[in-house]
UniProtKB/TrEMBL annotation:
<protein>
    <recommendedName>
        <fullName>tRNA pseudouridine synthase B</fullName>
        <ecNumber>5.4.99.25</ecNumber>
    </recommendedName>
</protein>
<dbReference type="GO" id="GO:0160148">
    <property type="term" value="F:tRNA pseudouridine(55) synthase activity"/>
</dbReference>
<feature type="domain" description="tRNA pseudouridine synthase II TruB subfamily 2 C-terminal">
    <location>
        <begin position="233"/>
        <end position="288"/>
    </location>
</feature>
<comment type="similarity">
    <text>Belongs to the pseudouridine synthase TruB family. Type 1 subfamily.</text>
</comment>
<dbReference type="InterPro" id="IPR020103">
    <property type="entry name" value="PsdUridine_synth_cat_dom_sf"/>
</dbReference>
<dbReference type="InterPro" id="IPR014780">
    <property type="entry name" value="tRNA_psdUridine_synth_TruB"/>
</dbReference>
<dbReference type="InterPro" id="IPR015225">
    <property type="entry name" value="tRNA_psdUridine_synth_fam2_C"/>
</dbReference>
<dbReference type="GO" id="GO:0003723">
    <property type="term" value="F:RNA binding"/>
</dbReference>
<feature type="active site" description="Nucleophile">
    <location>
        <position position="40"/>
    </location>
</feature>
<dbReference type="InterPro" id="IPR015947">
    <property type="entry name" value="PUA-like_sf"/>
</dbReference>
<dbReference type="Pfam" id="PF09142">
    <property type="entry name" value="TruB_C"/>
</dbReference>
<dbReference type="InterPro" id="IPR002501">
    <property type="entry name" value="PsdUridine_synth_N"/>
</dbReference>
<comment type="function">
    <text>Responsible for synthesis of pseudouridine from uracil-55 in the psi GC loop of transfer RNAs.</text>
</comment>
<dbReference type="GO" id="GO:1990481">
    <property type="term" value="P:mRNA pseudouridine synthesis"/>
</dbReference>
<dbReference type="Pfam" id="PF16198">
    <property type="entry name" value="TruB_C_2"/>
</dbReference>
<keyword id="KW-0413">Isomerase</keyword>
<dbReference type="InterPro" id="IPR032819">
    <property type="entry name" value="TruB_C"/>
</dbReference>
Amino acid sequence: MADPGLVVVDKAPGMTSHDVVARVRRLAGTRKVGHAGTLDPMATGVLVLGVDRATRLLGHLMLTEKSYDATVRLGVSTTTDDAEGEVVAETAASFHQPGLVAAEFEELVGDIEQVPTAVSAIKVDGKRAYQRVRDGEQVELKARPVTIHELVVHDQHVVGDWLDVDISVRCSSGTYVRAIARDVGQALGVGGHLTALRRTAVGPFGLDVARTLEQLGDDLAMVPIAAAARASFAGVDLDEEQASHVRFGRPLDLALPGPGAHAVFAPDGEFLALYEARGEQARPVAVFV
């Protein structure tokens, strides 16, 4: 069985995130494999998976920001806000000026309230929203706070009566890029959906360290759990006495250098736990030993 750590996969189109998990389970020789944030079948790019104890790290990684490259088609609305859905409306959009289009995308930068796409994995009364849609139900999801840190508009191409817009987005976890396409299309009065989506980074893990499933060898190109923790969180190196307290999940009389979770390490470099400041002490968020 593989040692605990992260596997950063460059997902191919047409596969579900579960398909990737199943493949890595076979390669790792364990069922204890999970992923940090679903990618739709049409999407490609960075999918971070945890193996063995590193699966517990994934819930904390999901709090980090993500980056995407995408193509938005203005002038066509679909049931899923992407190219996999059925077309529900078409409106000429090729007449829109590049500056006006770019300005509408820029309106979404910052802290916003976003209504997730109806075919999201969000649960409504215990049932996934996408399953309710497939069962013919009308799904009304509430707006949720998300942050779009950066949104860059690149090329704009006229395709028949429609307008394709290439964008790059850096956003908080929980942001739906499909909803960005939908909302900009609605603001311009022509509708919109995604025709392409590629995730380029999850937190500190980008395409530069990602491998396709075909490229993964016996070692799975694993990022060891200690290296993953140092890359994802501010790190604190402890002495032997402090490390012994951490192994029992005890609070530490320790001033952490900032807010949020910190990765704490034994003198030999072993990753022990995530701790955060609470009052005058540092207390455990999750212990990994």
